[in-house]
Amino acid sequence: MKRYAYITGMALFMSFILALPVLAEEQEKQADLNLTEDAKASILLERDTGDVLYEKNAHEKLPPASMTKVMTLLLIMEAIAEDKLSLDEQITISERASSMGGSQVFLAEGEQMSVDDLIKAIAIASGNDASVALAERIAGSEEAFVQLMNDKVKELTLENTNFVNSSGLPAENHYTTAYDMAMIAKELLKYEKVINYTSIYEDYLRKGEENEFWLVNTNKLVRFYPYVDGLKTGYTSEAKFCLTATAKKDDMRVVSVVMGADSAKNRNAMTMNLIDYAFNHYESEKLYDPGEKVASLRHIQSEKWNYDIKTSEQISLLHKKGEKEAGEVETAVKIKEDIQLPIHKGEQVGTMTVKKGDNLQIESPLIVEENVEIASYFTLFKRSLQNIAKYNQ
Description:
By secondary structure, the chain is α+β, with helices and mostly antiparallel strands.
């Protein structure tokens, strides 16, 4: 009888030991479910692939507050990349821009400020006045700029976002979702220079002048939490505390969105939970750098004979740590057929696809980083003579 009891006890003990890994895994899963317990909505994704690593009510429409400025910054960075705006250009502040309420850097009507400083004011201090000033410069009016914002929403095929202003001040019918905000941030991060602004913790406007203004980043994590280098906080009484954040470790960049937290402290804590989860459980394998040449464009009517085709963003594969998927990685470049000239700098001319086995992993735009102009008559004539000479050799 005692021997039977001993064997039974040992069996129960061994069952318990064998069950420990399963219990630990279940506890980890349960902990994962509570990464953003106190948020109305949240999401975590890897930037290069867009793979969603965690989500909670990610498609619920909510007010974004100043996270709206992620889209504003996207259109600003696009304009700079397309040479429609330069960092040293001086912008004259309008009466409308100077009169904006909420968070501001107290721009005066008629004051002139560089694009570079206005971007700092948006990215660091969430200046509503600076947002309107650049919106007016790019589109002529804030209303026209808002139309560009919503056009971009459609271009990104986002279905649950509508903007009414460029700043995020409370307004009827101004909403987005955690998922849509993450995808806007993913697009913004193609322009890596934006991190030069969003990662600044403190700076000054009008430094050394009588009306010098101290900028302090509303996103405290850029100073106090490793790897975080952006992007944008938000708060209104309706939206509560929100944060679209990004962090990079080694070659892996993630984007997190937390919406509707009850305090800045909880918002930051939930953001840290998401980022820790990403870096603890996943790793990425970089395939191409942004701006890496992958092909050449030749067009019989172009001014130059060869133009470099480059990646528009970093291209990577994502996998769980210690669990690389089977299958060879295959990349392919497809150039658009019947390309019409001229082609503007930054315009998409093709697509890079990445497959692993039979599974399509990534489709990424390929671009030209210079204008492709229509050849002059002189260039075409000279090219014809060169072809005739080759033919007669």
